[in-house]
């Protein structure tokens, strides 16, 4: 096992929306610099620290460069299992941070400045693959967890539930999941758009495009270094021997968690209410696992990964050999204070979690 590595946790504070400004919501979250934020409101006065804080004025590029995302891409290319996941209240900017305003307009292409962590990572990955002396194979898989069912977002035809298995060598894995190879930025962005359009979303009082499922897009990176020196008996035009250049397999997984929400505030009923309860249960299971993982290794009890499909799929990222970046997204509005504090406490606990890459 490698040495213990703490989860890197960064915070993004979205701007007040026009609706929040019109109704007179107060801004209760303030950046103090050096990775700290202060929450000041009636009966609440607290400061929280993170690896980095991006306030309302931070650009998508600043979040990519300042979060450590570029380093995560490079580690995936070096054969590590890397995960980035965004979490927070519904409407707090998780999907925007990861994808930008993806697919919200069919007629107007997304401005390059608005591209999210995912598209910027794809660009970085492809640039790195061209600059490195390696034989690289890239493929992508994309799934959602909707009402505790795992569905393939890239598989043609109506979505059907896929089984989640466990093996000693692989840990938890999804059986029969489609993996699609790609070689260009256009190809992987097309897969992202295709899958995202199949993802379950609905409108409610807090968010017109509320994700009703957790989504996981995984980039599989298989590389074999190409030796600059030919193997014995081969000419200069030949590649080095495979034994001298072992293959590496890394992954880069992007997790867009559905937002935690209070049914009373979102005005959800019927199917929306069922979805909300399923979302909240899985997020509660994730929070419970994080709380236990935040304890020193010698004091940990059993980690209940099997409590939800989400925690099973994130088991390696949180408590195993993965390298993980968490992006906590919050609203600065006084009306969202309770959920904002919940996210901040959640993120603070996650900072104490360690893995062994």
TrEMBL record:
Domain Kinesin motor, chain residue ranges per copy: 6-353
Record carries keyword Oxidoreductase: no
Gene Ontology biological process terms, A to Z: microtubule-based movement; mitotic spindle organization; spindle elongation
Alphabetical UniProt keywords: ATP-binding, Cytoplasm, Cytoskeleton, Microtubule, Motor protein, Nucleotide-binding
Positions annotated to bind ATP: 88-95
Pfam family, one: Kinesin
Any one Gene Ontology cellular component term annotated for this protein: microtubule
SUPFAM superfamilies recorded: P-loop containing nucleoside triphosphate hydrolases
GO molecular function, one term: microtubule motor activity
Location of the protein in the cell: Cytoplasm, Cytoskeleton
PANTHER family given in the database record: CHROMOSOME-ASSOCIATED KINESIN KIF4A-RELATED, KINESIN-LIKE PROTEIN
Assigned protein family: Belongs to the TRAFAC class myosin-kinesin ATPase superfamily. Kinesin family.
Protein name: Kinesin-like protein
Organism per entry: Setophaga kirtlandii
